[in-house]
Amino acid sequence: MGRPAKPLISRSATVAASIEIIDTEGMDAFSLPRVAKQLNVSTSSLYHHFADRRELMTEVAKELMTGATVPEYSSGTDWVEWFVELSLNYRDAILRHPNAALVLVQFLPRDVLTRTYERCARILEDGGVPAQLQVVILDGLEKLALATTLSDLMRDPVGSTEVFPKVDERRHPTLARALEANQWSSRELFVVTIRGFLAGVLGLATTPVSDESLRDLLGS
Fold first, then answer.
1. Which of the four pLDDT bands, split at 50, 70 and 90, describes residue 125?
2. Domain ranges, ordered by start, for the chain
3. Cα(186)–Cα(168) distance, integer angstroms
4. How much is the pLDDT for 1?
5. In sequence order, what DSSP letters do the residues of the chain get, joined into one string?
6. CATH code for 11-51?
7. CB atoms within 10 A of CB 178
């Protein structure tokens, strides 16, 4: 499709309009014609800035992640607490745009966050984390934050505080007792999960797994 001779809109305005549509109307309502209507331009005008829907969605994903504040770090900062705070900020950024959460799964390229990953790796190095465990932590934290937050968003009804819904204490007595004993909110459970993951990975530093036992574990 040919592009108009003069741009009528900006990339940032298009991304902002896209997020507004997704936030208020949901992903099903999103399309290039719908965005063009929101901006009061023709659909062809969007092609000045975006080759196709995928490129626009990638920019939307990038914009959403800029809402995740990277905490300040200085000498003496507890690196575990720093990563807990970063993970919480990542979670909060997703929760601010619940309808757009799946955009991050499909369209967020990791290369746009390489600078942040580099900073994280330096903090891990400063904290004495062995180099062979740093990618395990960086990869795992991102996946945990995204997966657990999506799980929270997909509860029915949306926003429900029930961890496991429809538990019958007669049919599921052990689970019912566990739920009754749980005193943590979903946010607190998220923090516990992050801390548990970090503690588990750090345990590998003191009890390293041999290549042979790792192959046995993976079944290869």
1. very high
2. 11-51, 79-154+185-218
3. 21
4. 46
5. -PPPSS--S-HHHHHHHHHHHHHHH-GGG--HHHHHHHHTS-GGGGGGT-SSHHHHHHHHHHHHHTTSPPPP--TT--HHHHHHHHHHHHHHHHHTSGGGHHHHHHH--GGGGHHHHHHHHHHHHHTT--HHHHHHHHHHHHHHHHHHHHHHHT-SSTT---SS-S--TTTSHHHHHHHHH----HHHHHHHHHHHHHHHHHHHHHSPPPHHHHHHHHT-
6. 1.10.10.60
7. 13
Burial of 91 (0-12, 13-18, 19+ CB in 10 A): buried
Look at residues 95, 73, 9 and name the one whose alpha carbon lies nearest to residue 44. 9
User: Cα–chain-centroid distance for residue 84?
Assistant: 14
Which pair of tokens denotes residue 140?
């795992």
29-76: pLDDT as tens digits: 999 999 999 999 999 889 888 989 999 999 999 898 888 889 999 988
Residues 6+ away with beta carbon under 8 Å from 188: none
- Please state, in angstroms and rounded to a whole number, the distance separating the CA atoms of residues 136 and 57: 28
pLDDT, position 216: 65
User: Residues 128-136: what's their mean pLDDT?
Assistant: 93
Q: What percent of the chain has pLDDT over 70?
A: 88
With 0-12 CB in 10 A as exposed, 13-18 as middle and 19+ as buried, what is 136?
A: middle
Q: What are the backbone dihedrals phi and psi of residue 163, each rounded to the nearest 5 degrees, phi first?
A: -75, -50
Nearest CA to 190 among 86, 83, 88, 94? 88
